[in-house]
Amino acid sequence: MMNEFIDWLAEPLQHQFNLRALVAALLIGFTNGYASAFVVLRRDALKVGSLSHALLPGIAVAILITGLSDWSAFLGALIAALIVGLGSLAVSRGSRIDHDSALAILYTAAFSGGIVILRRIGVQSELSEWLFGSIMHMSNGDLWVSFIIALVALTVMTALQRPLVMMLFEPNVAASLGVPVRALNYLLMGLLILILISSLQAVGCILALGLLVTPAAIMFLFTNATSKLFWGGGVIGAVVSVSAIFIGWWADIEQGPTIVLLLGAAFAVAFVVSPRYGVLKKSA
Length: 284
Prior knowledge:
Structural class: mainly alpha
Strand content: under 5%
Oligomer: single chain
Low-confidence stretches: none
Number of helices: 16
Mean pLDDT: 80
Order of helices and strands: HHHHHHHHHHHHHHHH
Largest sheet: none
Radius of gyration: 20 Å
Shape: globular
Helix content: over 70%
């Protein structure tokens, strides 16, 4: 009986595609969890959500020009997100339009155009994977992309963590101390875009926001220490993402949405039982 139970637990590890999904979940979950601290501290989750929606039109245009491939989808998503993300910053700095308004205008127009193009070129079957992800279909090439993005993003964010946090809390003070606030703003935006793209195959452009916000939001309910948000968010993102692969396999449900669903459930638990800011603590 015990041997059968162990075999049942280990069954997901016997399939190559599951092993790739587990590695991807570890890489993507930790990187998103670490980066989510910047999103929570900056309080611009909705802006990041706009960027995640901006990935779709880039994919559509790339397919229209070069045909359907992993690299065309990746490059198209990257270019579109950079245009929308960095373009909205440029518009807000060069006109009377605020950043939120500029971002809303650009991403809604781009997303609408992406849907129109995808329907015109007849790739409806792949549309759901780009919208909601399919981590079980990740190739070795997808893993390499995720690894390279994780390595670059984590290295840069860790090395520049102090000036980045200073920029988020006190941009005027940071500027007076010689911190290149504008350049760091663009850098952080670019890194978040890369991380969103690395999550595209796993959870899709619709659900990527949940993975890039929730881990640090959970930690935020347990600690006031800024440094713990980064590493704690990374650990939560990795553990939940890996757990979702196993749970999705055993329950026969889609693993990508399961990752975001488990993160949401973990946040709900933290919201209730957090010893610092939980509902039970406040009502006691």
